[in-house]
Amino acid sequence: MSEENRTNAPEEELTQEDINSLKKIRMDKLEELKAKGKNPFEITKYDVTASCAEAKAQYEKLEAELKEQAGEDEEKLKELLEANRITVSVAGRVMSRRLMGKASFFDLRDKSDKVQVYLRMNEIGKEEFDDYKKGDIGDIVGIEGFVFRTKMGEISIHAQKFVLLSKSLLPLPEKWHGLKDQDTRYRQRYTDLICNPEVKDTFIKRSQIISSIRRYLDGQGFMEVETPMLVSNAGGAAARPFETHYNALDEDVKLRISLELYLKRLIVGGLERVYEIGRVFRNEGVDARHNPEFTLMELYQAYTDYYGMMDLTENMFRHVAQEVCGTTCVPYGDVMIDLGKPFERMTMIDAVKKYSGVDFSQVATTEEAKALADEHHIEYEARHKRGDILNLFFEEYVEEHLIQPTFIMDHPIEISPLTKKKPENPDYVERFELFITGREMCNAYSELNDPIDQRERFAAQEEALKHGDEEANHTDEDFLRALEIGMPPTGGIGYGIDRLVMLLTNSPAIRDVLLFPTMKTLE
Question: How far apart are CA 249 and CA 425, in angstroms?
Fold first, then answer.
């Protein structure tokens, strides 16, 4: 069987022996090209004048204009099209070929789209046509020619010049065997992007989402900043950090788990609206919603509170969906998520009462809370207090029901070490989490700016650390010093960018929206 037939046979899955054999055939072709002075890897550039999508769009526009001139006269239209040919230079990867004696059609794909190319020996010369026939699916080529519409109605490029720009030495995996395995797709994202156009669309949309967020925040007077990734004290979230060593300083450091504490220092310094979009690192499990390194955005705004953060979040989600998706109603799985109507707002106590029937406003002590947990078969640790138990009830009974956008407000103080207490009820804090499709999308506070209270919260975290909580925060003395200088009332929020991308691209797993997700190294 020829290589072309073997690499396109849907019933036959290539073995490693097959792949090695095909690679040798391609290597031999490369050596033949080198011997003829046509080594494609010596080419350093190619002048592209249009993408595949632009070439087709230009032709459609021209054709529409000339049809108006020609009216119903088909012969006149044909003459006008020939007299006003659009010549383009395009480049991309050969995705399929159909040889027909001294002519051939092949599909060329670039970042924008796919276009059919028509090639004739009489047009490009026998030697170049012979080189083309010895080419392979996966080769990267440049084509110069004019755009036309075939008798079958497909906009194509009639090639007048052909050049091999890069030789593909390995066959592309076919969708029916090589890339149906998710593990292979994540490990070989480059072939996933080549063979599955919808994957490329997801990551193009990811870039658009982040750009849209930036435009929105810049328009609201926010300033984008950058803060350290290697820190001596990884605080600002409940997570276990990765640890490494700084050789130049002979000092152990950690990879940041959040952006919070440095951004709040900038609020102290008078930069009243700041945000950062960056990678953070948490030494925790990997599942459909979690990757050890992920993209987080945090923003802080002086002189507002968590209600201000709710308004900003609702408006920003709506803006980004409309700008990127063209609608505020987006599909996710088998439901439509409506970002256009006001988001529901519910306290954590009310949500737990609604979905579990347990009213924690009537639960006064940790002992009562633990008794309720025992009764409902909810596991907890000895160190857990009443507020921790309330949060466990929320996770068990409530989260899965929060499909449409819902702000869950007023968390217990035990799980919110950096948040301002509610003045009328100091057992709870001014905090919310936004849930969509049963997933937390962001986490926001009326930020704690009382350095005395903050020191007490850090002390409680140190105590939790002593009792085995590996995710508790250490006291950050420099941050406390900043608070003692004085921080204005401030609203702050953290967004999981990857989860927002999952929502707006209808992707079921976080790995589907990470170009290079964390994977265990193969032996």
Answer: 46
Q: Quick one: 337 exposed, middle or buried, by C-beta within 10 A (0-12, 13-18, 19+)?
A: buried
As a three-state string, the secondary structure of 243-284 is: EEEECCCCEEEEECCCCHHHHHHHHHCCCCEEEEEEEEECCC
Amino acid at 149: R
Could you tell me the pLDDT band of residue 472, with boundaries at 50, 70 and 90?
Answer: confident
- Position 7 scores a pLDDT of 44
In degrees and rounded to multiples of 5, residue 56 shows phi and psi of: -70, -40
**DSSP strand pairing (344-347 vs 406-409):** parallel
What tokens does 53 get? 């999508």
Q: Looking at residues 349-353, what average pLDDT do you find?
A: 98
Distance from C-alpha of 473 to C-alpha of 458, rounded to nearest angstrom: 7
**79-93 pLDDT, tens digit each:** 999 999 999 999 999
Question: In Å, what is the CA distance from 2 to each residue of 5, 7, 15, 18?
Answer: 5, 9, 15, 11
Question: Using the 8-state DSSP alphabet, how is residue 220 labeled?
Answer: T
The yes-or-no verdict on residue 176 having pLDDT over 80 is no
What is the rounded CA–CA span in Å between residue 27 and residue 166?
Answer: 12
Pairing of strands 140-149, 155-166: antiparallel
What are the φ/ψ torsions at residue 93 (nearest 5 degrees)? -100, 135
Contact 288, 438 (CB under 8 A): no
Residue type, 470: E
CA distances from 158 to 46, 101, 112, 123, 132 (A): 18, 17, 19, 9, 15
Per the document, the length of the chain is 523
d(CA 135, CA 122): 18
Q: Which helix (H) or strand (E) holds 282?
A: none
For residue 5, the model assigns a pLDDT of: 47
Pull the structure tokens for residue 352: 């737990």
Cα separation of 143 and 162, whole Å? Answer: 5
Strands of the 230-231 sheet, one edge to the other: 230-231, 251-255, 243-246
Question: Residue 331 pairs with which residues in a beta bridge?
Answer: 336
| E strand or H helix that includes residue 185 | helix 182-187
> Worst-scoring range by mean pLDDT, 319-333, 360-374, 458-472?
458-472
Is beta strand 335-338 parallel, antiparallel or unpaired with respect to 329-332? Answer: antiparallel
Burial class (CB in 10 A: 0-12, 13-18, 19+), 59: buried
Antiparallel, parallel or unpaired: β 273-281 and 293-302: antiparallel
Distance CA 41, CA 22 (A): 20
